[in-house]
Every structure is written in structure tokens, then in C-alpha cells.
Amino acid sequence: MSRAFTTLSPRSPDTKMFIDTHCHLDAEEFGDTQADIVREAHAVGVKHIIVPSVARANFDIVRALCGQYPGCAPAYGIHPMYTDTAMPNDLLVLREFLQQYRPIAVGEIGMDFFIKHYDQARQEFFFVEQLKLAREFDLPVLLHIRKATDTILKNLRQHKVKGGIAHAFNGSRQQADEFIKLGFKLGFGGAMTYPRATKLRDLATTLPLESIVLETDAPDIPPDFLARGEPNKPEYIARIAQTLAELRHTTTEIIEQATTHNALSVLS
């Protein structure tokens, strides 16, 4: 039941500390370069990396990676894009992992109505069952949401959890306010760095700063400053924070302090 290697350390007042609240460190695109990725992230002040799983098949992989590299914390869950092949027994395995290893969160879970031929009923079943597990173990959740925001909110109201992070948030201001009321922080990352992402940048500018956390979704959602085809990495959180600071007409230091505090408050 120990949570020793997943606990997030508090931010020291005189030390820079960013948190990447969503990074798939086990992704094939990274090969066996995780040691370099973590070291380079730490070098620029990204001291904690949250690593969500996506299916039963990578629970053990994520656990092993987070046990090996300092500052990495696992989340266990079944991603909506993997529910087509998931089995009900996978939920029993998930429950065992939550009970035995006590991760930082349940995730990545949610619903995705963007993919072709999605099965809404199947996605919703796995989402609701995982919300129940999050409630049972008093854990926050990491939400995947595409074209399914209102359905996600409906289920969160019916199966209330202690909060969490709406990963890669791209909804309306009204929807953002509803997530905030339910105890969620909103994840902003590489998509926000594109000048043409006007709606998202407006949200990043006008939402209460205490509702925002930073993420990469590495190796996905590469920021505007990367060359085409280059994978996203946790080390880019610092530059993403700079973009957010520019949008909000403040300093990167204030963004670092606020977003780190926000992440700690929802995940610790």
C-alpha cells in the first residue's frame, strides 16, 4: 500500500519546479531513451512527470518506469480508445493495481467521440466503472475528452470523484467552469502555443490561473516551436509556460509557481 515512489514532493520557494501532468513515457516513439528524457527534463526544472497508462497491457510497464526514474509518478487506467479490446476482467486487474500500488491518479480514462465507429455504450461503461474505482480509493482522475465533454460532465455529476485534471482541455468557457466546480484543473500544453488556436489561447488567457496545470502529452501534441515530426518531450514544459506567461502578460516564474501549486493541490 506504500505510495512512497509516487508522492509528489512540495515545491521549495527558492527552487524552480515544473510538473508535466501528462506524459506517455512508455511510448514507442521514445524507444529506450527514457533516462535521457527524464534527465533533460530535470535539467530545465521539470522535476515531476505524471505517466498515465492506457490499457491493462501497459500497467506493469508504467509502474516499472516510474519506479526506475526519479520524479515520475504513475496513473493506471483504461483509455477510451482501448475500450474496444478491453475486457471486464481488466477492471479487476485495475482494482488490484490501485489497491496494491496506490498510484497518483486513475487515468487515462474518459470518452472519445472523435474516432471513427466508436462504441459510446462501451466507452461509457468503462468510464463509469473507473470513476467508481476512483471513488473507492479516493483518487483523482486524468480525463481524456474529445467531442464528448457534455457526456463526461454528466457522468462526473452522477459519479462524483475528488477531482482531477481535464487533460488537453479544448471545451467552451461554460464547460471549463463546470469542470472547475467539480474540483478539476484544466490541462494546457503544446496546442496552446499555436497562434491560430485562438479559442484555446483565449481560454488560457482568461481562465482563473488557479484552474490551470501544464502538460505535454508527450510524445503527442508537439508545440509550435518544434520541427515537423519531432516528438514532444517533458523538457518543453518550460517553453510552454513561457507562452502562457506571454498570453497572460505575466512572468514565467509566476506561471511556474501557480501551475505547480495547482498540480500539487489536485494530485497530492
Can you describe this structure?
This protein is of the alpha/beta class and 268 residues long. Helices cover 40% and strands 15% of the residues. The protein contains 9 helices and 8 strands. It has helices spanning 34-43, 59-68, 88-101, 120-136, 149-158, 173-181, 198-206, 237-248, 252-267, and strands spanning 18-20, 46-52, 72-76, 105-112, 141-146, 164-166, 184-188, 212-214. The chain has an 8-stranded parallel sheet with strand order 1-2-3-4-5-6-7-8. α6 (173-181) links the parallel β6 and β7.
- Whole-number total of structural domains: 1
CATH architecture level-2 label = Alpha-Beta Barrel
What profile does the largest beta sheet have?
A: 8 strands, parallel
Helix percent band: 25-40%
CATH topology: TIM Barrel
